[in-house]
Amino acid sequence: xxGDLILNxxxxxxxxxxxxxxxxxxxxxxxxxxxxxxxxxxxxASVPVGILTTVTFTNAYGxxxxxxxxxxxxxxxxxxxxxxxxxxxxxKDNGDTFLFDTTGETKPDDIERYxxxxxxxxxxxxxxxxxxxxxxxxxxxxxxxxxKQEVIELSENLDDLLPIFIPLVIFVVYLLQTGLKFIGxxxxxxxxxxxxxxxxxxxxxxxxxxxxxYAVTIPTLFFAIMSLLRTQVPFGFLLYWLVATMLLxxxxxxxxxxxxxxxxTK
Length: 266
Description:
Blueprint: H1 2-15, H2 20-24, H3 32-67, E1 74-77, E2 80-83, E3 89-93, E4 96-100, E5 117-120, E6 124-129, E7 132-137, E8 145-147, H4 148-199, H5 205-215, H6 217-228, H7 236-253, H8 262-265
Parallel strand pairs: 4-5
Antiparallel strand pairs: 1-2, 1-8, 3-4, 5-6, 6-7
Helix pairs in contact: 1-3, 3-4, 3-5, 3-6, 4-5, 4-7, 5-7, 6-7
């Protein structure tokens, strides 16, 4: 029974990639099925990105651990990294570069000159590897504070915790992304109220929510692939909503127009 349910959900995923007509038929589903679909969709989209992010973090942690005793005393408070250094700390090893600079002398664009670098700047961490660049803003840790000594003490115990920490990070990323996706589906369904009036289709808000859950499939998977490729999409936020809205509009258009009563045709 459960196997058939999962198989049906994968079929719906397949139809959601190319057939608005088939998607329109999903509107009669009970809410449980599209909710489970969103969880599956985000498992496909979030877990690979979570793994990539964790690997990147682990590599950056290894670089910091190797060089932390050489960098000046620092403190991370409210998303800002600060220290008393007068000039950037740069160390190269077999083509890899470790850079620590809270002076502001090194700009994010300066990272392009390095082939492989792990850079800790005043407001962000930047990692460049094999031509791809990934940034992490310290604002994500704005509720936390760290000092150099605390990081050293933490690193002495973190090695044993990494096998637990990595799956935990992946799971947290998955939960956060899934929660945001449910919010996005709800917003898209609200936009659908306008689209149904434009197309003069008779469809309830519940049915719009179901259709919205499937309409976000293509933009969700597209941006997941772009994240895996570490490719930044210009105007990504606007592009996502434009594509999702357009797909929902196409699906609503596939719903038959309500039949007119005999007296209405006279």
